[in-house]
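[recover] target loaded
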């Protein structure tokens, strides 16, 4: 039997014990259905061999070799990863287009007596659902964009709000990148397709009656491009801006970027890459501060002379969307900061622009006052 997908996270998936991707390991690593395991019926080298014979010799010879390889690999999977599956086990199988690779494995497993279905159209059909969701379908929930200069702890605050049950999509978490020039993480970023699959599932799970909080991002997060539907939502959503002094942002960034402080070569290379944007003396000063471990002065200098001027130009484009400014004197208590943002989410009404001013980091939400933005 075959399963026709209607959604990215199709309810039909819940009826199977395993979702099996029979494509080659490189195809699986690039992107795959959520929760799938990889049991390739042809590995990368075998797939290349069959393709070469198909083009250079004949389709018949390619199919004959392919059948032998598929049978051998199927036997290996049955005796290995599937050895402990009982008679009631049920699997959903897919390949690139739901064709010969998944059909062959489905036939072999079905002969054993297992209930095995195949995704109609394979990975390609699921990918079409992903593209539809992230490119063509508008974000259903009202979008609130948490804005603020570099180092304002936007991601950390959003994570705390998500833990409180608020509806949040952490784009940087999905992209495995902190968003800035210095934001690469120890783990590599996912492929563009894998990122889009993650985002599509998050968008599909939204409650349209509740607001969605996202971080203000550029159109790229590291090497990942933000898809059209999400980017349009970021550009048009209501904005809540964090206003944090540069010293407090620098102190937070020094704590948050500990991995970069420990990698002198990488830090030096990133600073050197800014040479076309800043005077040589400034670059030398930043390099000297990095070499001396003068992290606070380095962070303050980068924010004051590199990030803030560029962010100011970016923010000016969205001035009409900014409705609330949350003033934070420091970022020592991120739970208190999250309290203020939560109050701002509940408070602003479209067209009523204002600011939430706070005098100390441990001030309660009840003591926050709304003042006009001049």
């Amino acid at each position: 039997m075959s399963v026709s997908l209607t959604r990215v996270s199709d309810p039909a998936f819940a009826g199977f014990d395993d979702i099996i991707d029979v494509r080659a390991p490189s195809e699986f690593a690039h992107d795959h259905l959520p929760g799938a395991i990889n049991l390739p019926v042809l590995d990368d080298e075998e797939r290349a061999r069959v393709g070469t014979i198909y083009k250079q010799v004949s389709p018949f010879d390619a199919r004959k070799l392919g059948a032998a390889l598929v049978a051998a690999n199927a036997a290996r999977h049955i005796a290995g990863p599937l050895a402990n599956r009982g008679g009631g086990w049920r699997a959903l199988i897919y390949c690139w287009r739901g064709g010969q690779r998944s059909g062959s494995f489905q036939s072999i497993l079905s002969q054993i007596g297992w209930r095995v279905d195949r995704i109609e159209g394979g990975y390609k059909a699921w990918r079409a659902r992903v593209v539809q969701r992230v490119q063509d379908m508008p974000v259903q929930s009202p979008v609130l964009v948490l804005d603020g200069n570099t180092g304002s702890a936007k991601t950390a605050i959003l994570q705390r709000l998500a833990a409180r049950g608020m509806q949040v999509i952490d784009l940087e978490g999905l992209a495995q990148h902190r968003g800035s020039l210095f934001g690469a993480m120890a783990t590599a970023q996912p492929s563009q397709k894998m990122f889009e699959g993650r985002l599509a599932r998050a968008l599909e799970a939204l409650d349209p009656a509740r607001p969605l909080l996202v971080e203000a991002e550029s159109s790229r997060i590291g090497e990942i491009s933000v898809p059209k539907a999400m980017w349009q939502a970021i550009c048009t959503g209501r904005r809540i801006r964090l206003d944090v002094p540069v010293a407090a942002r620098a102190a937070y960034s020094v704590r948050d970027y500990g991995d970069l402080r420990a990698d002198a070569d990488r830090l030096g290379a990133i600073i050197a890459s800014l040479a076309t944007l800043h005077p040589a003396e400034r670059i030398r000063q930043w390099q000297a501060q990095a070499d001396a471990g003068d992290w606070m002065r380095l962070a303050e200098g980068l924010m004051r002379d590199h990030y803030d001027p560029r962010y100011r130009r970016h923010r000016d484009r969205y001035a009409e969307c900014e409705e609330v400014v949350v003033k934070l004197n420091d970022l020592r208590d991120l739970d208190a900061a999250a309290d203020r943002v939560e109050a701002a989410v509940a408070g602003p009404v479209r067209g009523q622009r204002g600011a939430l001013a706070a005098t100390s980091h441990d001030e309660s939400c009840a003591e926050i006052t709304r003042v006009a933005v001049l």
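[recover] notes: Residues 295-316 form the longest helix (22 residues).
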